[in-house]
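With this grant's support, we have settled on a layout for protein records. An illustrative entry appears below exactly as we store it:
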Amino acid sequence: MNRSLPSPDPDRRLARPRVETRRGPCRSAFSLVELLIVVVLMGIVAGMVVSRFDPATADQLDQVAAILVSDLDYARALAVANNSKYAIQFDVASNVYHLQHTGTNAALDALPSSAYLRNGVDAFNKPRQTADVAGLLGMGPTVRLHQVQAHLNQVQAQSDQSAVTAIEFSALGGTTVGSGVEIRLSCGDGAERRYISVKVDNVVGLASVGEVFATAP
């Protein structure tokens, strides 16, 4: 006797085993420690940028260059007004420059008082006024006289430029140097050092200030 097998129930479906998964806690924000680390790192990076591109260095150069131009213009004005000769003499090693009457009329040797120049005398006891470049502003990074050179022409290489120690102004307002003169100031040390140029035209005797630059001359 054959027994028939029960027919499968079409409504019966195989049940899949339920798999339970555990999820860790969701993170919706940084922890306090992580935030502190980010802040510290940002501060370090900002400090590196400020130290390399310190705007105070450019400001110092701009202000000292402006004072130097005013003293050059002052010497020129004295020469024109008194129909004589006056010179700005540079001592790069000592980081100072002097204003002195260089004409033949000894009555003009005594100099009027000036805001940034202190009265004194030279080795021959002749009156002169001196400006200490490092102390012109009284605070901030130190600015130095880097070099003073005469440009023999506009296309000549720097190696052919000759150093000068003074710019003398004549009664007509021009200089007796015979060529344009470039005075370079520097501020900062190493890779952070910056420069600025003050150029004096020998024909009319007027001075102008250039842009701050980083390339060593």
